[in-house]
Amino acid sequence: MINGHRAPAISAFGLCKSYGEQVVLDGIDLTVPEGTIFSLLGPNGAGKTTTVQILTTLIGADSGEIRVGGYDLAVERNEVRSVIGVTGQFSAVDELLTGRENLLLMADLHHVPRRDGKRLADDLLARFDLVEAADKTAATYSGGMVRRLDLAMTLVGDPRVIFLDEPTTGLDPRSRRSMWEIIRALVDDYSVTVFLTTQYLEEADQLADRIAVLDGGRIVAEGTAAELKKLVPGGHIRLEFRTAAELSAAARVLGETARVLDGVGDEELTLAVPSDGGVKSLRFVLDRLDDARIEVEGLSVHTPNLDDVFLALTGHPTAEKEIAR
């Protein structure tokens, strides 16, 4: 507790890391509240994995003040390790062992009594939908099953903070969505804090309470997905009208920035008004129309997606787009 307030699960200030003349992290600041999912979003080479390696004590920072789980990473590294779990891009699963044996081995490493370890393994196999494959070697598992087992093994140590370094890279869309459900459940059922690195915009949008965009070793933006989407132009309020006369009247009232959307049929009666998507701008538009006694048949708010945000902030598309091309 700090001044009567609960300390954040992770805090880092002025975090720097270089390898020779190559600057990987250039003074980044991060604060992650307990019981939330925080996503560090960025392309390959942005410094995401280096950040995770520092926060999990695998490598040292050149400078910066870091606390994880309430412990000072500079002088309490063992205490930090006792409260964290890590699932990286490369699995810790032993493919020569069965799923159950992997979990029991992890329980032994954490000095869990054998009887409790067996009960815990059974619970985790059920929770991660691995019961039918429990006694098959992990070498026979699909990529999604290996990722689920890897995450289950991380939970054996009862961590308070879990680091997931690009946990769905290489998975098919169905397996990726299954992992999303599991990650959400970690926070809801286990009350843990999740620090998630990803290069997938949809993943950050779906999962994270807050997102930091990392590019070239710097945090270029941070906020909720909705807040980040308001940073770039392109948002608008879409208004639908019953008649062409109402549409024309609304266009006159709302000024030159309003534009009629091209379309056929009913879509010809749709007007787009630039907006940041906020309540104030929405109220302003509706009040103008109400004063002019113009009725709106339908209304929707459209904001840029995270892909637009990422391109605007970093100057280049995400890995998803690059692969798609």
Explain what you see.
This protein has 325 residues and is of the alpha/beta class. It has 2 domains: 10-224, Rossmann fold (3-Layer(aba) Sandwich), CATH 3.40.50; 236-302, 2-Layer Sandwich (Alpha-Beta Plaits), CATH 3.30.70. The chain is 37% helix and 24% strand. It is built from 12 helices and 14 strands. The protein has helices at 48-55, 77-82, 99-109, 114-127, 143-155, 173-190, 201-207, 225-229, 244-254, 279-291, 306-314, 319-324; strands at 10-19, 22-32, 37-41, 63-68, 71-72, 84-87, 161-165, 193-198, 210-215, 218-223, 236-240, 259-260, 270-274, 298-302. Strands 6-7-8-3-9-10 form a 6-stranded mixed beta sheet, with helices on both faces. It has a 4-stranded antiparallel beta sheet with strand order 2-1-4-5. Strands 12-13-11-14 form a 4-stranded antiparallel beta sheet, with helices on one face. A hairpin with a 2-residue loop joins strand 9 (210-215) and strand 10. Helix 3 packs parallel to helix 5 (143-155) and helix 5 (143-155) runs parallel beside helix 6. Mean pLDDT is 87; it is low at 320-325.
